[in-house]
Amino acid sequence: MKLVSWNVNGVRAIMKKDFSKSLENIGADVICLQETKANTEQVKIALQLIDGYNVFANASKARKGYSGTAILSRKKPISVAYDMGVEAHDQEGRVIAAEFDDFFLVTVYVPNSGNELVRLDYRAQWDLDFMEYLQNLEKVKPVVVCGDFNVAHQPIDIARPKPNYNKSAGYTQKEIDGFSRFLDHGFIDTFRYKYPEEVKYSWWSYRAGAREKNIGWRIDYFLVSQALKTNVKEAFILNDFMGSDHCPLGIIL
Questions:
Q1: 25: domain CATH number?
Q2: Model confidence over 96-152: pLDDT tens digits?
């Protein structure tokens, strides 16, 4: 199975930027989207020209046109569940879990800690609760979790680590520790597993030509349960695909 994740920064916006052709070229069995910025019906309408996929969407209840996730799957999942079951976290459409024969696939759009780190404490609690959510799924089946985790885990994952450390959302020690906890509990960062020393990013600021200069961050990930480690045949980040401030990434199981 070829699984792909992409923060599209607005599904209706990216559909105007050859998104259909991009997905055709990628050729994934399942595509997980984050930051759809649309309600469920709007997502399905935006994606109606993309053939061959079952579409499942989760939208923000608290703010319209904000956050949101979706899963497009050629094979119909056994079941699909939305949100974590934690009231404080379930207002922004950030989680979808699709059950397949051998694993759960979870797409996630982890909250950003915000300007001046105003949401950092909330974000830290999210990481704890999301870890517990994934562990509960693992009691049933192994888990593949992908999406925008909004954190660069190590200095290799960010072009300018020193000026951003503990100053910028996505590269504070509290967020780094939250991500490390997933790995400490047995999840595998698939790209690092396959490419321990490769410098590659998945997000670039729209400011100052950051993408052209490759001043980026790796904040999008595919993690798998330890039980699936040997099933990971390839992991990739597709820097050449445009349309969003993020690029797609994926794995082959």
A1: 3.60.10.10
A2: 999 999 999 999 999 999 999 999 999 999 999 999 999 999 999 999 999 999 999
Q: What's the structural domain count of the chain? A: 1
Let me know if 165 is a catalytic residue: no
* 83 in active site: no
Q: Does pLDDT of 214 surpass 90?
A: yes
Catalytic site residue from 109, 133, 201, 221: 109
d(CA 188, CA 222): 8
Enclosing domain of residue 45: 2-252
Residues ≥6 apart with Cβ < 8 Å to 203: 7, 148, 216, 217, 218, 219, 220, 245, 246, 247
Residue-level pLDDT at 195: 98
**Which one from 83, 127, 148, 220 is the annotated catalytic residue?**
148
Question: How far is residue 251 from each of residues 5, 18, 173, 177, measured CA to CA in Å?
Answer: 9, 22, 28, 24
Where do the H-state alpha helices sit in the chain?
11-14, 19-26, 40-46, 120-138, 161-164, 173-184, 190-194, 210-213
In contact, 220 and 7? CB cutoff 8 Å: yes
Residue 191 exposure: Cα atoms within 13 Å on the Cβ side? 26
Which tokens go with 96?
Answer: 């979808």
Our separate counts of H helices and E strands in the chain read 8, 14
pTM over 0.85, yes/no: yes
